[in-house]
Amino acid sequence: MTTSQPTVGVVSRVAAALLGGWLFAWGFVTLGIMLLLRAGMPYSDARTLTYLLAFLVYLAGLCWSFAMRRARSAWLTLAGGGAAMTALAWWLARASL
C-alpha cells in the first residue's frame, strides 16, 4: 500500500490545524495571563479572560491553517508561534521573581 503525496499533505495540514492550533492557543493563554498579571489584573480574572479568548484564537488558527498555501508554513507559524509565546511567558514569569 503506497501513500500518495496529496494524502500526506492533507494529513499534515489536519495535524497542523489540530496540534499546531492547540500549541498556538496554549502560547496565547500563557502569554496573555502573564501580561495581564503584569498589568495588575487578578489571576482568576486574567485566566478566565484568556481562556475565553483562546477559543477564538484556536478557531482562527484552525481555519487559517487550511487557508495557507503550504502545510509547512502553517506548522512553522502555529507551532513556532506557540512555542515562542510560551517561552516569552516563561521568561516574564522568571523575571518577576
Quick structural summary:
With 97 residues, this protein is mainly alpha-helical.
Describe this structure in words.
The protein is 87% helix and 0% strand. The protein is mainly α. The model has no long low-confidence stretch (mean pLDDT 91). The protein has three helices and no strands. It has helices at 5-38, 43-67, 71-95.
Strand content: under 5%
Radius of gyration: 16 Å
- What number of domains? 1
Helix content: over 70%
Number of helices: 3
Topology:
Elements: H1 5-38, H2 43-67, H3 71-95
What are its keywords?
97 residues, mainly alpha
